[in-house]
Specification:
Blueprint: H1 2-18, H2 30-33, H3 35-38, H4 61-73, H5 79-85, H6 90-102, H7 117-128, H8 139-143, H9 162-174, H10 185-190, H11 195-206, H12 222-227
Helix pairs in contact: 4-5, 4-6, 7-11, 9-11
């Protein structure tokens, strides 16, 4: 599909030439091919509606590949992504994932969101300790103690907007993000969160500066690796 978009662009520039303009020479590079992606997933700071499109630069390759494949195969649904990816092979999705995972771009500044002391305490308790009574593991147990993810398949939580984090957690709670016959660990966890807990987590994470690097897969506790095995397939989603 990206090649089709590139071909259409080349045809348009060819028409410009026919009417006296200078034809544009577009290099056949991955950076050019993924411009359809960066229309939404750019490196710029996102506000308002655009805040719902997350940053994908620098995310773990296995995580990006899993998400691209989920969209293509109908396990995760957002119509523009489904249309964009429907005819792409696993090999090409790996190329896209590899490209974006290699990008090291500046992060936006933390959001200036006021929080009450009790909200901060609630968020930090869930993020670093979880809630064993509700079978909610600490966010840091899966996403790393720096909250920058665990390679190759678990993303970081910093550098995302409050709107995006809140929307994702709410989507998991409603079952509108993943379509699967097997349990999804984030859906199971999110359904145990209250509205106040979702809001506190989203606010707290969006307020944090980005620092640190993704941890290796060995940092993930065996019981959590088993619980979320559907997002951490063999070879981190590279098969």
């Amino acid at each position: 599909m990206l090649r089709i978009i590139l071909s259409i662009f080349l045809c348009i520039t060819g028409l410009t030439s026919a009417y006296g303009g200078t034809p544009a020479v577009v290099p056949d590079t991955m950076a050019e091919r993924v411009k359809a992606c960066t229309i939404c997933h750019s490196a710029e700071d996102k506000t308002e509606r655009d805040a719902y499109y997350p940053r994908i630069a620098g995310k773990p390759q296995g995580y990006l590949f899993n998400q691209l494949r989920n969209f293509r195969d109908g396990r995760r649904y957002y119509q523009p992504m489904v249309i964009l990816l429907e005819n792409m092979s696993d090999e090409y999705l790996q190329e896209i994932a590899r490209y974006f995972s290699s990008l090291q771009l500046p992060y936006p500044a933390p959001e200036q969101i006021p929080m009450q002391p009790e909200e901060i305490a609630l968020a930090e308790r869930l993020i670093y300790s979880g809630n064993s009574e509700k079978d909610i593991p600490a966010c840091s147990a899966c996403h790393g103690d720096t909250l920058m993810g665990i390679a190759p398949a678990i993303p970081g939580l910093l550098g995302l907007s409050r709107a995006y984090i809140s929307a994702q957690l709410s989507g998991w709670r409603k079952g509108s993000i993943m379509r699967s016959q097997t349990p999804d660990c984030m859906s199971e966890i999110a359904k145990q969160l209250s509205n106040d807990e979702v809001n506190a987590i989203a606010k707290w994470l969006a307020r944090q500066p980005v620092s640190g690097e993704p941890r290796p897969s060995s940092a993930l506790l065996p019981e959590l690796a088993h619980r979320c095995s559907q997002i951490i397939p063999e070879n981190g989603g590279t098969k």
